[in-house]
Amino acid sequence: MKVKDIAEAAGVNPDTVRFYTRENLLKPTRNPDNNYQQFDAEDLRRLRFARKARQLGFSLPEIRQILDQADDHHSPCPMVRDVFQHRLAEVEREIRELQQLRKRMTSALSAWQDMPDGTPDGHTICRLIEHWEDPAPSEEASDRGEE
Amino acid sequence: MKVKDIAEAAGVNPDTVRFYTRENLLKPTRNPDNNYQQFDAEDLRRLRFARKARQLGFSLPEIRQILDQADDHHSPCPMVRDVFQHRLAEVEREIRELQQLRKRMTSALSAWQDMPDGTPDGHTICRLIEHWEDPAPSEEASDRGEE
DNA sequence: TAAAACCTGTGAGCAACTCACAGGTCAAAG
DNA sequence: CTTTGACCTGTGAGTTGCTCACAGGTTTTA
Predict the structure, then answer these.
(1) Interior CA angle at A58 toward A53 and A64, to 5°?
(2) Which residues form a coiled coil (chains A, B) (predicted)?
């Protein structure tokens, strides 16, 4: 299989295949005649695996680590379980934050229903946004030193 | 006010102030003696406005557009309302996607409870992730040409 | 008066691709 | 048999919104 073939088989952009190869997630052999990269079924498995892992929120370094461990015949699964748990917690945090944001947005929208547009007068840039109230910073975030 | 002063007043990193200045969101005057940037209350308003708008999901180009329109004494509010509506819809889409992701993650987790780790054997990289089922691609996304 | 803390502009780094470019290779059509 | 078009190669840059690093100038503090 050449780049385009494996890319189509996995449903990704050929440039993504090249990128993953550069990043050592895929290790194709070379055709000595023309220096083309040759991918086999194992590479396709790795590529599909990488894409699934990406969907789950694993980073490329994490995926490379899993793949490398698998190459060394170490089971990466305990690590996967661990990262996965963290990832799930983070997804839930993201959901909570977005829900808060949505709440603030909808209440701002309804408040804006009654406000005139108003031309900027040197004091007010846009009342719609200046009317916005800062959310109270969340404790989890500041606990972990985030901004 | 110098960079550090306005940064502290707005609760941002001084480098963010410099960055926004480079991006023409802030237009401080210069002290001719030492070439230092001088920010006034109006700049602080703009900076705070920009930060609020960022929290609402506006991009820097959008914010610059609003600010420039305000400079020209055009009311940016109708545009703000418009972008805001789009932004709200997008936030809601993100929430739906994350909720689907969480659902898939939790069901995968419970399925994994019963699975042994298993050492990679050349056919299986990590059963935990290979067991993962691809979600059906959402129609909205493919409708709009997203990936 | 010297060190510490600030200022300046510029350039690079982050994540995960995506695209562009210039040149080499190959399959089918004329 | 040659041309054309589609593919391949590696590399470098662009995306977003900062953040950090660097080298050198200025101001404040001890």
Answers:
(1) 80
(2) 81-111
Could you tell me where the beta strands, DSSP code E, fall in B1-139? 29-30, 37-38
Alpha-carbon gap, residue A37 to A43, rounded angstroms: 11
Distance of CA B65 to the CA centre of its chain: 17
Q: Which of residues 30-49 of A touch strand D (CB under 7 A)?
A: 35-37
pLDDT, tens only, A74-86: 666 777 788 788 8
pLDDT band, residue B12 (cuts 50/70/90)? very high
DSSP E strands, A1-147: 29-30, 37-38
Answer whether residue A144 shows pLDDT above 50. Answer: no
Please tell me the distance in Å from A98's CA to the nearest CA on chain B. Answer: 6
Q: What is the pLDDT of residues A35-47, one digit of tens each?
A: 999 999 989 989 9
Residue A48 pLDDT: 92
Name residue, tokens 């892992």.
A53
Q: Kindly report the CA angle at A9 between A55 and B96, in degrees rounded to 5?
A: 25
d(CA A65, CA A129): 45
Nucleotides of D under 7 A from a protein CB: 7-11, 16-21, 26-27
How far B76 CA sits from the closest chain A CA (Å)? 7
